[in-house]
Amino acid sequence: MLDTLKNSFVECTGRERARVLLDKGTFRELLGPFEGLESPHLEPQGIVPQSDDGVVIGKGELNGNPAVVISIEGSFQGGGIGEVSGAKIAGALEMAFEKNKSGNIIYPIFIFDTGGVRLQEANYGLLSIAEMSAAIVALREYVPVIGVIPGKIGAFGGMSINAGLCSTLIITREGRLGLNGPEVIEQEAGIMEFDSTDRKRIWNTIGGRQRVAAGFADIEVEDDISSFREAILSAIQQGAVERPRSSQVERYLSFIGSVNTSEVLTPQKVQDLWAESNRYNSDESSKVTDSSVIKIKSRGHRWFNLLTAGSKNIGVAPSVLCSDAIIGGKPVRFLAVVPDESSRFPRARSGEFGLEQGWMIAKHIRDAIEDDRINEEKRAIIAIVDVPSQAYGYREELLGIHQACAAAVDAYASARLAGHPVIAFIPGKAISGAFLSHGMQASRLIALDDDGVNVHVMSKQSAARITQRTIEELEEATKKVPSMAYDVRSFEKLGALHELISGIKADEPAGADRDVIYKSLITAVEDIQNSPRDLSRRLTSNFAKEGGRSASIIVRRKLAEQWY
Amino acid sequence: MEKLSFRFPATQTLESNAHVGVVGSGDLEILMEPSEQGYADVTVRTGTTGFNQIWKTVLERFFSNNDVSAIIKINDFGATPGVVSLRLSQALEVGRNAGYAKK
């Protein structure tokens, strides 16, 4: 019989999606529903868990090519990433990396259907997403990491950054890709900035067709199983991509630079600018800002000035400071994101991590990698982290803020893999997408023990709105679940911190404080030079082993057992 | 969230594990595992509280029509009684047909 009806891929459940992509009879699920690996954090909060925690890991073959499919079930908790689901994904990517590295080719196919971090597990999601990023960047050198956004939910939050790191991104017209969901932008920036009920505007901003036309995705597919398979196969045949999107700093910088921010920006205009950016030559941004004339407006800025001790700021954008120095005989490059009242992008004037910040951070890191290419000793890259949030805005989404974040993530991870000791020093706020982009790829995280040091995934107001709780209910929940709390002491219990330093005047640091931090940085650099270049330390620390990351560790162990 | 337990006598064992559904709006997830105990042991976790009697009625009806000795876990996200019965039938069909695979 002639089969003229199309076979919808979008309508499939997460498990069916993994199964139908693979050749018939080859699908084998790892860590399936009967393994008893559900989230341990939901039931205590009165939320019904799902047996697979909303992630399916399937091994099999695609046209005879060994493949591992990671498929997120968007219907369960909006595809949100918690500790178990996050560890399943990160663990699968890490395993795929190990296998490819040792010569056994296996193609990773990553199906996104997620709102980002699962707010009920908050910082566990943040940590897992950073671990996925690290694995994608490492893996991409060997095989293409193929991202698929079929649609229903799409790829949002920190997971949009991971989509931005993929070698090839396949999307349907119904697929959506953006850092901040419309509701969150409306909550954070007001209804004038983005009306979350304006469907047409949403599709024209973050919908699949616009994303392909404006340089943020590669292949638009029809919602048909065979179309998805064909698109994935073409990506496999293409092989590892030499210059993934998130590493194309020059082109995107000129693209962002060509935007006239005093005009209304339409989706069509963005498509035109993207097409032109291929030819556009940017050297207009070569003027260097003298940081001494910028008024100090943030804690991060104060620390930057103190730690760089008068070294010249070579940052190009006023909001991104960059300076080379020698501490304890070791070459280092300091980077900080600071407020800039006169930024062309109004939503990124208070120190938020936005478009220019992402691409500029990436540029400064990549310059250092290039300069040190032949040097035996690679300079340390030190991110000074005081970032209140990512920038929430319509223009930001239209111009792909998720991709700017991915560029920074990619640069930090690439520096780490190239042998640069990468350290995040956290004297202030480390929030959400901003922290993922600026800090979380560091080999070591060093924070100050201070009330002004916060680590979290979303403001309380937005988190309350999205999880449909009152702020009081939310605060009640954070008392029971350390990963949901905002303070750095709670974050420390998750095991990701290398050091928490007390007795420092975080707001008004002086010379003595600088000496303490220098000492800690130098020790960390030496420690890094004798350890693996991945993020494994976060899972082997005492806090992690003693309960902070129990589920993450068990998931990885079981995954390795079942991987054959 | 509420956790409910039920037990119904049974004689016939299930052939294989069965897993159906998702914990998504208006739906539920069911896991059935074969058991030699001679009971259908049902544990329900539901986000919609206060429906004990309805669960009891729906499950009693299902297990009086279907003799199955199994451990059954139900993770519910606001499924209606009709959806619950359909999913139970589906799970049973999967569990009685070892090797059955969707699509």
TrEMBL record, chain A:
Q: Which Pfam families does UniProt cross-reference here?
A: Carboxyl_trans (PF01039), MdcE (PF06833)
> Which GO molecular function annotation, any one, does this entry have?
propionyl-CoA carboxylase activity
Mind telling me which Gene3D superfamilies this protein's record contains?
2-enoyl-CoA Hydratase, Chain A, domain 1
Residue ranges that the Swiss-Prot or TrEMBL entry lists as coiled coil: none
The alphabetized list of GO BP terms reads: carbohydrate metabolic process
Record-annotated CoA carboxyltransferase N-terminal domain positions: 1-244
Please list the residue ranges annotated as the CoA carboxyltransferase C-terminal domain. 240-545
What's an example GO cellular component term for this entry? acetyl-CoA carboxylase complex
Q: Which PANTHER family match?
A: PROPIONYL-COA CARBOXYLASE BETA CHAIN (PTHR43842), PROPIONYL-COA CARBOXYLASE BETA CHAIN, MITOCHONDRIAL (PTHR43842:SF2)
Q: What is this protein called?
A: Malonate decarboxylase beta subunit
Automatic annotation (TrEMBL), chain B:
Q: Pfam family of this protein, just one? A: ACP
Superkingdom of origin organism: Bacteria
Instruction: Kindly provide the name given to this protein in its UniProt entry.
Output: Malonate decarboxylase acyl carrier protein
Indicate yes or no for the key word Protein biosynthesis. Answer: no
Instruction: Tell me which HAMAP family the record gives.
Output: Malonate_deCO2ase_dsu
O-(phosphoribosyl dephospho-coenzyme A)serine: residues bearing it? 25
Question: Which NCBIfam families does this chain map to?
Answer: malonate_delta (TIGR03130), PRK01220.1 (NF002293)
Changes after translation: Covalently binds the prosthetic group of malonate decarboxylase.
Q: Which InterPro entries match?
A: Mal_deCO2ase/Cit_lyase_ACP, Malonate_deCO2ase_dsu
What cellular component GO annotations does this protein have?
cytoplasm
Keyword set, alphabetical order: Cytoplasm, Phosphoprotein
The record's principal subcellular location, in a coarse class, is cytoplasm
Q: Where in the cell is it found?
A: Cytoplasm
